[in-house]
Amino acid sequence: MVTSPDTSVAARARYEPVIGLEVHVQLLTVTKIFCSCSTRFGEPPNTNVCPVCLGMPGALPVLNRKSVEFAVLAAMALNCRVNETSIFARKNYFYPDLPKGYQISQYDKPLAEFGFIEIKTNGGGSKKIGITRLHLEEDAGKSLHEGFPDAAEKTAIDLNRSGVPLIEIVSEPDISSPDEAYDYLTRLKEIILYTGVSDCNMEEGSLRCDANVSVRPRGQKQFGTKTEVKNVNSFRFIRQALEYEIERQIDVLEAGGMISQETRLYNANQGKTYAMRSKEQAHDYRYFPEPDLLPLVVDEKWKAQIAERLPELPEARRARMVREYGITEYDAGVLTATKNLADQFEEAAAAAKNPKRVANLVQSELLGRLKAKGLEIEQSPISMKGVALSADLVESGAISGKILKDLYDLCFERNQDFPAVYGKEKPQQITDSSAIEKMIDEVIAINPRQVEQYRAGKKTVMGFFVGQIMKATNGQANPKLVNDLLSKKLE
Amino acid sequence: MDLNTLTIDAVRCAIAEGKTTATRLAESFYAKIEKEDQAIGAYLTISKDRAMAKAAQIDAMAAKGEKLQPLGGVPVGIKDVMVTRGVRTTAGSKVLKNFVPPYDCTAVARMEAAGAVVLGKMNCDEFAMGSSNENSAYKPVHNPRDLTRVPGGSSGGSAAAVASGMAVVTLGSDTGGSIRQPASFCGVVGLMPTYGRVSRYGLIAFASSLDHIGPLAKTVKDAAIVLGTIAGRDPMDSTSADLPVPDYVAELEKPVRSLKLGVAKEYFGEGLDREVRAAIEFAIQKLATLGCEIVPVSLPHTEYAIPTYYLVATAEASSNLARYDGVRYGHRAQSVRSLSDMYERTRDQGFGAEVKRRIMLGTYALSAGYYDAYYLKAQRVRTLLTRDFEEAFKMVDAIVTPTSPTAAFKLGEKTGNPLAMYLADIYTVTADLVGVPGISIPCGETREKLPIGLQILGRHFDEATILRLAHAYEQARKN
Lengths: 491, 479
What we know:
The complex is a heterodimer of chains A (491) and B (479).
Chain A: H1 9-13, E1 15-26, H2 65-77, E2 81-82, E3 85-86, E4 88-92, E5 102-106, E6 112-120, E7 126-138, E8 142-144, E9 156-158, E10 165-171, H3 178-195, E11 207-217, E12 227-232, H4 235-254, E13 263-267, E14 272-275, E15 288-289, E16 296-297, H5 300-307, H6 314-325, H7 329-335, H8 339-351, H9 355-373, H10 384-395, H11 401-414, H12 418-425, H13 433-446, H14 448-455, H15 461-472, H16 479-490
Helix pairs in contact in A: 3-4, 6-7, 8-9, 8-10, 9-10, 11-12, 13-15, 13-16, 15-16
Chain B: H1 8-16, H2 22-40, E1 43-46, H3 48-63, E2 75-79, H4 106-113, E3 117-122, H5 156-163, E4 169-174, H6 180-186, E5 189-192, E6 212-217, H7 220-230, H8 248-252, E7 260-264, H9 274-289, E8 293-297, H10 305-320, H11 339-350, H12 353-366, H13 372-395, E9 398-402, H14 418-422, H15 429-434, E10 438-445, E11 451-458, H16 463-478
Parallel strand pairs in B: 2-3, 2-4, 7-8, 7-9
Antiparallel strand pairs in B: 1-3, 4-6, 5-6, 5-10, 9-11, 10-11
Helix pairs in contact in B: 2-3, 5-6, 7-16, 10-12, 10-13
């Protein structure tokens, strides 16, 4: 982080940052918002285009109902009130990648309003960050400055992205630190991913974020003058950009200066924000209702149909998993990191003989190994199905805990899933009861004190004996057989 | 065969009976255009390949004895604001000088699917902005009835071609009167359907909430046939109405007796030419003798229609014309220094004076701090105008007015005075703002033999009634 030497820590503490975030999320519809062109990413330039998304004379937009359903689903997941009637509006400005000279967006009557996201605060409590509005709009194309013959002199335009559906999610200025901003974005992304309406891939631009930030003396009600920070392409950079920008604003104010309301671009290499040239931001977008589209009506019936597709959201799911599987809140968090993983886990657990044992194995055997290897759970060699199989084998006594640990180690070593490794390494179990009986006799003979304890009623000593036998057989004795024989001998 | 009086049914009969072929007919129209259009200037582009291919297809059908479609072999012209795949479409503007669209306007596609032979693209005011056709970036159109006079606008080429027999019917577009006023000036029938009745897909937008496509024809029946062909829901235009399309031709023959006709005093005020007034009053009497009941009505907000129109239309135009930026198609200024230089010079070179004036007016009306006072207020007045008509239509079935306060004026007469030019639309703009259908039919001539038009306005989606009244009047006048 870049800090400024001329502002004291004490001076900084006198100020309070005020942050609001604008997040654009691309919706995963198959076709564009106002025409039937494909939304697929990474196609050759200007191949997914038609008269509508090229802004040809005479072409007209027709709204994609799927994009409305996706936007409504996201709005519901973010606790928004979905307006029965919303209005599309034209946002007018000239830019080469904007084919019509205006973007079809929503302005004074957005699709949804008054939502919130709950984030955790440092003190361990939680805080609601308000969502002012969520609206639908079309994406613009892209200007290309490299990758074609005369790139040195010319700019090329790729309009494949023109007309891809976006939702813009605008937060209230309720965020009071870069950490809170980071947490808000993490939660937001998690929730959107759960709804399945976007892949939130920041590298491909399917999630983009701009931040409005100002500072004010602590205790002051009135907001300070804000700047808008753009061009930030990871949550980490947003935190850094905000940290820098807050410091910068405090420095300016402490030096007796004024903050000018402007758009600033973040340069990740230098860790600094820079003011954009003032000419480019003197925009009057001249919004007016889009005459080519009818008002968008989402009535109660349609809303109810969409609501049926709303999945259990991460927060609620974590709470239920703690309850149902007896795992810690932290581990529930790991298992619900993506909806896919949580679904896999719960599917595997439900199919296993003892769902709780599956959860326990994930918690006690899998997560530690992943951490040691520096792997994310999505990269685990052992799938949830693999964990479930291993749990069943332990449950039935087919393998011991010791063997399971060894097999897990092998899975990580070979980067293979459990069923494959188990199939190959299936341990030769000792099921010869006379051999086991012989070993039991030996163990009983050298541990008279424990035998006495057991016979005096301390049944937990059984575990000690089982452990000794397993040790002696290198874990290969059939646990069920050992238990049965031990009980008989000790009685 | 007299091309000057040829109607749709006459063409179909002649081809069906083997008296001519679609190919021969198209050729004779081209010969006539070659000979006569030099003086008139109705056509901007000839689409001969496309026309002859279609004509050959019709002839093949006729040779097999197949029944011809409603417009089978009928030579038509299309106003150059409707895009035609593979045929240059300019909107009368330099900015689209060499623009060849990759797709067809829905209305044009429906005309061709019904058998029409598209001869070419009709001259018009640039982006349909004008009332005299003098704003065409290419050439003016001369009124066939008096070559020193304008044909009206903006569908001046479409009206002049029908009036001079260089097309049997044409399609025009009407945003503030651009079908009805030139129809009136050239002595032909011009129909503006209800907003939403005909798809706007492929119509180069001037003002999206006001733009309508409609026919210009020699007879009311021809206008009815064309409307029946192009009307109806189009999934490509969200604002096109999903309503059944009546059989307009069958509706023509229904009696007009006891229909109530409104006459609004607001349409007979200052600025109305004496001869025009007399012709309209005579026409109203004629309709009364046909059994229609004449009822005085009031449309009290009429005086605000022109300012309201010029705020809404220019605001939408300022946005609709933003796409002509030199980036993807059309004219691009050469040797530019920067992106903004490219925009500024492309648009400066590409657009004519009237288009620039309207873009500036509209940009101003939408600007921060002015939006409420101008655009928003204009939309509110539009609501008041709509209520005027709703009230009136509780009492009457249609409203009759003059189409234009004067007959055709001289070329150059009003080009120096935009406001005087705007007032030429004083009786037509309200129907565009309200979205009701209107038709202009010839109802007499001035002493100088200039045609006068009678306008009949109807309820939303009730084209059938105004066509029926127009047809009855047309037949009565003939006899």
